[in-house]
């Protein structure tokens, strides 16, 4: 059989051909873009562990916004971010007015609108807020909204704090603006604790986590079939199980399995078994090791104190005892780890591992 292109996308920030899950959330945002300029979701913070799908979700939502009369400026939080937002906004505006569908809508020729871009680009013509306001004025004449997405937020970046303070004015001035920010939970909560960005505390907060089994299964099947192969039910459920409901792991399992099934039009259980094994290794190297590097000794001691329960939920009191600490001490770490999406609380007084393969890795090392 002719080999077809591997449809899985195990690389960071890469939007997969079929997005698993997140349907309700995406639906809410589509409504917000098309119906309600005051929808609280238009100022949203996305947080979750590495590889959970934050960047991809923001890119996907930006595309949805673009389909509803918005333009988007997508940047990463790093020095130069403010200028980058200006440039990306100009680019997006210029691209929009060049679209045939937009040209048809407007009777006047507006191609000249952004051609005097030096006015916006040159800092002699006003500070950042002034120059942005000028662009927003023009966009407003055509009811075009501006969505700004800021990825990998860094609470120590001064520009991010300045930006947030200024953005608040755009909102107060009733401009058609939206803001999405995404980052690791520790960074999001550190940013929120900064006094000068208190308005961000009222933003809608979305903690991204596991994707439902059924959604993973559907996405697997669709991705595979659209790319020209098929998969039996047993192989499919084995593949879904191997992902642990984790977005990046789904792409790894799919990618590796596809290679195993290169010469066959049907993906079999044996392909998935080998693919999943390789995917586990990739996941440990790409995610688990990096995640553990970010943790404190106390965090790790807490996770290790969960190991004797062998994957069953651990009682908080047992964990405290195994750590040789008071329950109050253990609770501090519990909160931090839950916030980071590494463990979850299935019921009161208990915790269990949330991130796939974290437990297995700690057992072996
Ligand atoms: N809903 C989804 N369904 C299927 N695959 C997804 C989904 N979301 C993300 N992915 C895949 O998961 C991987 C990680 O996604 P992404 O880069 O968005 O993660 P992230 O949360 O931004 O990670 P980081 O914190 O490291 O930036 C990518 O390979 C992407 O293709
Ligand atoms: Mg990302």
TrEMBL record:
- Cross-referenced SUPFAM superfamilies: P-loop containing nucleoside triphosphate hydrolases
Is ATP-binding one of the keywords?
yes
- Which InterPro entries does its entry note? P-loop_NTPase
This protein's UniProt keywords: ATP-binding, Nucleotide-binding
User: Per its record, what are the GO molecular function terms?
Assistant: ATP binding
Q: Which domain of life is it from?
A: Bacteria
What's the protein name?
Answer: ATP-binding protein
